[in-house]
Structure formats: structure tokens, C-alpha cells
Amino acid sequence: MNNPAQKQNARTAITPTREQDFPEWYQEVIKAADLAETSPVRGSMTVKPYGAALWENMTAIFDKWLKDYGIQNCMFPVLIPVSFLSKEAEHVEGFAKECAVVTHHRLEKDGKGGLIPAPSAELEEPYVVRPTSETIIGEAMARWIQSYRDLPMKLNQWGSVMRWEMRTRIFLRTSEFFWHEGHCAFETPEEAEADTLHIMGLYKKFFEEYLALTGFHGPKTPEERFPGAINTIAFESMMQDGKALQAATTHDLGQNFSKSIGIKFQGRDGKEGFVHTTSWAYSTRIIGGMIMMHGDDDGMIMPPRVAPVQFIILPVIKDEATGAKLIEFCDGIAANLKKSGFAAKVDSRDIRTPDKMWEAVKKGIPVRIEVGQREMEANSVTFVRRDLGKDSKKTCTVDEFYGLAQGVLDDIHNGLLERNRKFLHDNTVDGNSVADIRNFYASGRIGFVRVPVEVLKDPELEKVKQEFKVTARCMPFEDKGAKVLIAKSY
Fold first, then answer.
1. What is the pLDDT of residue 367?
2. Burial degree of 367 (CB within 10 A; 0-12, 13-18, 19+)
3. In a domain, 13, yes or no
4. Which CATH number does the domain housing residue 216 bear?
5. If you placed Cys at 186, which of 191, 223, 383, 470 could pair as Cys (CB 3.0 to 4.6 Å)?
6. What is the pLDDT of residue 6?
7. CB–CB of 234/207 below 8 Å?
8. What is the rounded CA–CA span in Å between residue 88 and residue 83?
9. 172 vs 202: CA distance, rounded Å
10. Do 181 and 282 touch, CB atoms closer than 8 A?
11. CB neighbours of 173 closer than 8 A, spacing ≥ 6?
């Protein structure tokens, strides 16, 4: 594995390492960072407080951007009548095998100490637990939109969906996952197309400026489009094992959904027509992407601009007599950092300092501040950057640190992003044929192969896809539709 992340020490917090077993390393990082765990519900996860705080930070930033663009938040039922999905044949074909179905509204005792669905409580019409909300939001739009004066209608929903996955992995692929889903209706096809491009631009900005993740973005091939869409634009990032992660998508649905659901409007010319709709989303899957791109063999490395804790302050207490005073000194530092808008926390728990340090490392907290008796007396701090480890240890006065704090976080972010860009560049190769794709993956190399779109027409490509489990990811905008990326993916 071409490894972009640096090691913290000869000793590692996570076993196995990335080189030894990347999938298992990934699971162990989640556990060590206390982000999430498997739940009693098959294939679903429980996101723990630290992971939930990360997601809240991400949603708060992006939600504001959506509102600035004119998006209105709404909340729709989690249960969708089966008949709604049946209205859109192509759409339901894409999700039918993944739907969880609700058929009864009451339980009763089975006579053996358990519970079963009551035969008398069978629903007239079954419901599916929403796999996505195009159909139920479309039904509402059909009632809410009467004329061009009601357009554009720009809606968004934060929540969860369920797709009954057979093989699950926390954050990356779970039966229930958390996301936002935008659904918009427009008067013209040009407006719909502009919407998909604008939102993808927001995704790219968010991923790069806040998550320190980069990638390729561009249209999906027709075979890989969202069911029912006339165009799908995807953002594809490369993980440390060389696989692609689809970080976000936007979909131009044309009039396919509006015609099947009946979303009509009276145009400016007085004639009746169908609206042009779009949908788009990113989900908690991107947290998995952050782990797999930034993490090292010591655990998570949290991008500082979304980190739940940016500065962890550790009082190094060696004399119980002065311990309370030291904690008070640390509390003052944390308070001042918070006043400046930083997320700071004092870890004053009654546990060993080395254990606190390792916990901070595994959680990926961007900056660890160590304060002992000597620092307190000198009104100074010693701090360590998570991305650089012990080699970055510095001591300065408290006031100097306040002046350095923002620059340190920015430098961590920029370093992570630049490392990600370099890794993506170094592991994306150009080819000209199916043979080039085969030779690349047969050699054991990792990464993306970029080939001319004409290669998609070669019948031999299907054999290579099957043999190496690769797919066409997207046609990068930077190549103006002339190239397509081939990669293994999550």
C-alpha cells in the first residue's frame, strides 16, 4: 500500500496495521476513536456521542450553505406506501431488493412467551421504510405546485433511510444510515441542470475546505446513473487502499419523476407542463472516507475544521497538593480558546496521563496541549500536533499560543488536503485500452485508471470488470467528457 499517512511512534495504537489488514484496521479505528458501534438491529449502527458531534458539526456547516442557496428544510414520513414506489418503475427497480416492508400495525403474544404480528392487524397497504424520498416528496410537490409562480421549489430533509444491505460495514454501508436529501423542482431543464452543478460545487467546496478530502467529480456513465435520472454527477475520492469512495451525488431527474407522479404546473404561456426535478445527497458514509483517507496506524486523524474537539488540554499532575490549581489554570486556557471560537476541552479525569494522551491520539484530536507544574509557573504550554506526532512538540507562552492556534489548525488542514491530493495524483494512471486496465490491476497496483470513454464500448471491458471487481466511476469534468475513471470501489 502506498501509504500517505505518517506513523506516530514505533508503537501503534491500532492492530492490525493498514498494511496487515486494511478492512480490519478500519473497524478498529472506529472502535478506538469511540465513533460508533454495531447495534442490535441487523446491519445498523449506533453512532456514539463523539461520532454524533462530528456529524452535527458537518450538518451545521452544510445546512447553512443550503439555506443561503434558498433551500427550505422539511420532514416527511419514514414510511412510504408501496403504491408510491410502484408509480416509478425504473426507480423502484433500483431499490426493490433493498426495501424493508411494514405489513402489520400491532403485535400479539404467540403463546410461547414471544410476540408475533397480529393476523387481524394486517395493513390494507404495506409500507416500505424509506430507501429514499423522491416518491413521497414528489406526491407533496404535486399538491403544492400549481403554477410557475410556485417554482422553483427547493426542499431538503435531514434524517435517515434504510436499505437492506447484505454485507455491512460501519459508516460505509449499513442498513440504516444518516444523510440529507435535497429534492427540487424547476420550470426549465436549464435550471435543473444548474442546480445539480451548483450543489456538486458545494460538495466539492465542503469536502476540500472542511474535510480535507479531494477527488474527481463528473457525470456517471449511463449504466451507473441513479435509477430514473437523466444525468448523475458524482464525487469520487481515493482511499489509502486505492479504492474509490463515492462521497456524494447529484441527480438531474428531468421530467421522469414529475410525469410518473403528476407534478404539473401552469406555465407562463398558460399551458400545462411537467416540472424538472433534481435530487442530491451526502451521508455518514463520508465519515468512513475521512477515516480511510486521513487515519494512520495510531488511529483517527480528525480534520480540524469539523473536529468535535480541536484542542485537548491535559493537566499533568504530579503533586496532588497543586493539582486543583493546575486544573484551574487549564480551565482558564480552555475558556479563552472557547471565547475565540475554538472547540477546547480539559481532560481532568482521574486516570493516568499516558492513557489520556493515547486516547487523544486514537480519537485524532488535532492538537494536544500538555500543562504541568513547570508550564503553569512559566505561564506556558507544551503542544503536539496529531498529524505530525511527537516531532512537532513545542513549548511557548500561553499568549503566544493563543496567537498561534488558528494558524496551527489551518496548517494541519492544509497538510492533510495536500497529502490527499498528492496521493490521488500519484495513484491515478492514464491508459488507452482495456488491456491497460487489465495490466494495471493484474500487477497488484492500487488506484484509478483513466481511459478514453471509447473504451467503454469494448466488449472485453465487461470481462475485466468481473475479473478485477472494477467499475466506471465518473467522467471527470477536467477531461471535458473525454475520459472515464475505472476503479475498485466501496
1. 98
2. buried
3. no
4. 3.30.930.10
5. 191
6. 44
7. no
8. 9
9. 22
10. no
11. 165, 167, 285, 490
Query: How many domains is the chain built from?
Result: 3
Q: Are 28 and 169 in contact (CB under 8 A)?
A: no
Q: Cell numbers at residue 194, please?
A: 444548474
Same domain, 204 and 288: yes
Range of the domain at 149: 22-294
Most distant pair of Cα atoms in the chain: their distance = 83
382 lies in the same domain as 467: no
Q: Which residues of 276-292 are buried (b: 16+ CB within 10 A; e: fewer)?
A: bbbbbbbbbbbbbbbbb
Q: What is the CA radius of gyration of the chain?
A: 25
- Tell me: do 167 and 252 sit in the same domain: yes
3-state class (DSSP) for residue 244:
strand
pLDDT tens-place string over residues 305-327 = 999 999 999 999 988 888 999 99
Cell numbers given for 456:
467503454
pLDDT (tens digit per residue) in 190-204: 999 999 999 999 999
pLDDT at 322: 83
Cα–Cα distance measured from residue 24 to residue 266, given in angstroms and rounded to the nearest whole number: 56
Same domain, yes or no: 389 and 477 = no
Q: Residue 90: what pLDDT?
A: 64
pLDDT of residue 3: 52
Instruction: Report the DSSP pairing between strands 311-315 and 367-371.
Output: parallel
Residues 240 and 275 in one domain: yes
Is the model's pLDDT at 342 over the cut of 90? yes
Task: Report yes or no on 8 lying in a domain.
Answer: no
pLDDT of 182 over the 60 cut: yes
State the amino acid at position 446 in one-letter form.
I
In a domain, 16, yes or no: no
Closest CA to 317 of 371, 356, 358: 371
Answer yes or no: is pLDDT of 91 > 70. no
Q: Is pTM, for the whole model, over 0.85?
A: yes
Nearest partner of 300 among 416, 470, 174, 435, judged by Cα: 416
Name the grid cell of 230. Answer: 437523466
| Beta-bridge partner residues of 218 | 234
Does residue 361 carry a pLDDT above 80? yes
CB atoms within 10 A of CB 335: 11
Q: Which three cell numbers stand for residue 283?
A: 451521508
Q: Give which of 105, 93, 161 is closest to 133, Cα–Cα.
A: 161
- Look at residue 7 in the predicted model and tell me its pLDDT: 43
Q: Tell me, yes or no, whether 469 and 420 share the same domain.
A: no
pLDDT value, residue 92: 64
Residues 79 and 212 in one domain: yes
Alpha-carbon distances of 98 from 165, 213, 297, 398, rounded to whole Å: 7, 29, 35, 55
Are the beta carbons of 58 and 284 closer than 8 angstroms?
no
Same domain, 163 and 206: yes
Residue 304 placed within a domain = no
